[in-house]
User: What shape does this take?
Amino acid sequence: MKNYLKRKLLVLTLLVPISFLMAQDVRVSGTVTDASNGDPLPGVTVLVKGTTNGAITGVNGEYELSVPTGSTLVFSSIGYTSIEVAASDAGDVAMTTDVTNLDEVVVTGLATSVKRSNLANSISTISSDQLTGMTNQGTVDGALYGKMTGVNLTSISGAPGGGIAMRLRGISSIKGNNQPLIIIDGIYMSNAEVPSGLRNASGANRPNEEQAANRLADLDPNDIQNIEVLKGASAAAIYGTRANAGVIIITTKRGGQGRTQFSFSQDVGFSKAVRLKGMRDWNATNVAATFGDGEVAAFNAASQLFDYEKELFGETGLITNTNFSARGGSDKTSFFIGGSIRDEEGIMKNTGFKRYNIRANVDHKISDRVKISSSSSFIRSETARGFTGNENEGGLAVIYNLAYTRPWYNLYPNAAGVYPDNPSSSGNMLLVRDQAKNDDKVNRTLQSLAFDADLIKKDDQVLKFKWQGGLDFFVDETFVYVPEYHQAQVGNQNGYIGVGKNVFTNLNYTAFLVHDIFLGDISLSTSAGISYLNFKREFLYNEATQLIPGQTNLTQSGAKDIIQDLQNEEEFGFIFQEQANYNDQLIGTVGVRFDKSSLNGDPNKYYSFFKASLAANIHNFDFWSVDQISQLKVRVAYGETGSSATYGSLFTTFDPTNIGGQGGSLIDTQRGTPNLEPETSQEIEFGFDLGLFDGIVGLEFTAYNRKVKNLLFDRSLPPAIGFSTQVLNDADLENKGIEIGLNARPVSNETVIWNTNLNWWKNEATYTRLGVPPFTVPGNGFGLGLGTFYIEEGGSVTGIYQNGANGPEEVGNTQPDFEMSWYNTVNFMKSFDFSFLFHLRKGSENLNLSDLLFDDGGTNPAIDARGSQYASTWIQPAGYIRLREVSLYYTLPQSVLSVFNGTIQGVKIGASGRNLWTQTDYEGYDPEVSTNGTNALGTGLDVGPYPQNRQIFFHLNVNF
Amino acid sequence: MKKILFILLCAVVTFGCEIDEQVNPNAPAVETIAEGATETDLNNLVTGALARMRNSYPIYATATGTITRELYLFDADPRNTTDLIGTEGDLDNDSFYSTANWINRYRTIKNCNILLESLDAAASSVSAAEKDGYRGFAKTLIAHQFLVLYSAYFDSGIRLDVEDPDNFGPLVTDDAQVLQFVRDLLDEANDDLTGAEFSMIFTSGFSGFDTPATFSEFNRALAARAALYAGDMTAALTHLGDSFFDINGDLSVGPKMIYSTTGGDLLNDLFKTPGQNGNQIFASDTWVNEAQAGDLRVQNKVTQRAASFSKSGITVNYETNLYATSTTPIDIIRNEELCLIYAEANIGTNNVEALAGINAVRSAAGLADLVGTVTVDDVLVERRYSFWGEAHRMVDLRRTGNLNDTYITLDNITTTDADGNVIPATQEIFNQFPVPLDEVGN
Assistant: This one.
């Protein structure tokens, strides 16, 4: 496709107000310490209030600076309560820790940030300690479970290597984008779920039924310094047309000035299935009742019953994770270099995940005013996922076939290594496990470059230029192989090979001018800039059938086919934002972004996304006199975001066909819609933050209403017109929710420090308008006979519908009534750290079609108790309470380490677990399940997933 | 220290960009064919239609076969048995057995309609006679697809006016009107074929039917079938006369849907690997047991198993042998059917010819000639064994008023009631498929 840019000039002019500078005539100095133990605190910011003039404390907590007479100094550091001291009284200062993290700096715009105490949105920040400090985490999304409000995570598969559906504040889209935008060090990182094409051999209906991982799995959680989650449109508005499902901003670790510090960690762990269904209590009577009298002879003839479920999922997987990093730097240049190797075996033989990762983050100050930063990483991931999920007569998905396998049939290979055909199903699971392949290899490079220049730097104002560019390039190579002697292949395809080469190139840059000015009581921050991105994807899929026996090379086949799909997306936007802060009492922000996209009907039409917010720190007003309440902030925020149609929605095209070797054209089932607009979210959120007893207790309450308008959806057309679907902008939905977070440090003394964090959140999503008659959501279910998602005005977005007496009716809902998590860390006797995280999902139902298969196959252990072969319904309660993470660490005391003469500075050993305990009424393998992959509207449909597992780890961390 | 005040002007030069109008790099757009289609474009549409008419034929054959209890498909989807024999209540209008056949028939029709619409503005190199050839082809194929829809959906409602996706006609529930529409369209197509020229390249399945004159014989064979369904025996006989009907000829002659292992092509999904249970078509025991002794059609079409096999309460002993390989062609209409149409159309008017028609089929099946007066039941018996697994049984029993449990032997399927007693399961014999939900929902 031809594509060129016509460039035109755009001039931004900024007028900067006048200001005066004052004389500096007092020198102050002292030491800052931690009030709880008297340890010196390095890195504390000491600022003259209302200016940018200040200093940072050194390694021993010392500081020294010149200040104007009569001024006030502000001491601040993340995790501590800020202190204001008159310059005349300044000297040694002791700071107390703060559970509300008021001084943490939160990135709120593409180029701006704000102190948490002044934030008007509920933005969750997860530190590296919270992310990976407790137990080993395979993937970044998996590490977020229960750690913040407003997020709903569902693991689609227990296979190693990821696969998690993430929903921030409910449902954002019916068709496209429900997974949040991920930005890592300024790079728009692809979180694509790349199918391997195994559906062409298994008969699965759609690419999203292939149970592929989402590619966030490539990122090593140990590289991450912190994660900020912009959950709704009010916080994410500045990201415009890509941010409808929220934004996750990931910052990786960087170096700092000082001695080079090395860190080594080794984790070793084991995984086991959370639960297995077990076998029926077989006897001649129930064999005859289930399979007819003719089957009893086969049952009686069998020398033993084979527990194939245990054979398949009874393995103990070994997980090892090795991490090494070095960080340090001079006053000009700092660096972080890290690498890791992860090797994870699944609970089924021949499945696993390996990830090799190397990262170099370098920052260099060219001068006091100019800084460049580079973040580079290279990742190689190798995944072997096996065959799970839905299929149609492919004889590949292991549970699909397990359900129909009668345990008196011997499916083990004979002495010659030949696997017998499965007499009661389309395939022998053991053959599939041992000899078929569904593999995936990713080679990926993430590179970002940032350039910051202070164009003007004065005591009362700064004008900065910020440029940041990012590249995410990866090649995802998939390989599917089914041997020609597999029983479903014999006489048909005679073996199948699918080789995919998928090339992703995401390029983006932003350029901003940011002007901060302090005008006495008011400070203003103005930013303006542009954003450009270009995503290219090329999917090349080669398949071969009629294989030459024993060969796994595409060339060695009688029939070959190629599928190529090219996608190109281009977007451009302008951003403007103004933030005003009156004495840290009132903080207001307004902003707007204009975006255009090649995915819209008119690629050059700009769509606007506004935002406005106000936070009032009541406790900073003079009248406030309640000492027990150290913080009271009320806040309200409004914002808009968008999401464009998925690639190709604009066109009506022909598909290629073949009959007897003769090529032809066939009308595609999708009718193109040339005039599509982006769907947009409009969110208003309000809430308050309360800090009690000088930051010992913090409470955060947020309520929101997020309306998604002009929803893009695949409307089912009456198929008689020759088209089955068309993308339309003709529905609205509404997410309403409440998020409550309670942080406290109930005990803090010499021997015990206990921090606790209780989160509670809920969301309800309802269709508020539908411009066409009700219809089933294409590509998201199994028809109204078995159960599917259904769009009707006033209906629940997450409802599972079936045919009822009066037409389609909701029979279950995949959305929980609420979720809750309880996170605790206890440090005792200075050396021990004990932590645990409970996660509760109340309510919600799944459609357990795996049980339908087990019922139909006659092998469901529930049949005996129930007395009838088929359950009356396969809608089952899917709530649970789960011990997500638990850990105990021991830090060796310095007295023990002294034998190393200071070479080794810290040693920590520990043990931890994930998913160790679960309580649920769900009868399937695990209530967390999604046969439709990560990005579909609906999770909670259960069709033969890879069972979830629990893990135990042992840890060793050494710093030197 | 005093500083002077200053004003700062900062100009930042950035780039705006103009995004191009988007063109799909992956596939030709419909618009490119609507204006100035070349012969290649038109031929690609012909091939596309011939390729697509095969899709979902297997589910149509097995679903109607299951409803009439002539066969069962045992595979990973239990709905292939339970739903279709009615143990789960009414047929679901949103399950594959109701939707897939409908969608693919209409998609084939759409391809033919695009072919018809693009003829007026086609390139000047396409002659008027060639255009008539395309018209005759497209209309015949459309009529065939509607005839399949009629057989499957009967009076549930069939949408006849579907050319304009923004302005389409109602669902027609009058089955006679549907049949008349099909017959008119076939006649119209046949008129187009007169004096037409073919510039398209047919598949090898149309070998012998790939000129306007011979394709017209295929058209007339379909017209005879439609006339029989309409009870218009006179017209049926007239159409047979213009078709490839040959009472002394090879019964297997007729156009076929072909399959190959070529990449992107389909395999014959009604072929099932012998000996497999997980994905297999079985003949019902009643179909085998009720056959006349020595009927070669039984042994040619099914193979007896060494042991019986049960699933969903149904016990079976005979698996399909209807197609030898996964690339064996499937007949669209063949001389065997024309002979039986001939026999049936002559009942009550010319018993000698009726006997000739039925005995042509019986002798090929190794059976003794029938004597005496031919009845509709006699013909139905032959049709039952001649067209096993070919989606004829449901329409045949329905049009003769026999689609019920006095004519169809139900399997003995049991279930357990609330008190734990074993009782016979409720079963249904469905008359037709429901119109898909997406069709009525819109």
Observations:
- Chain A has a mean pLDDT of 87.
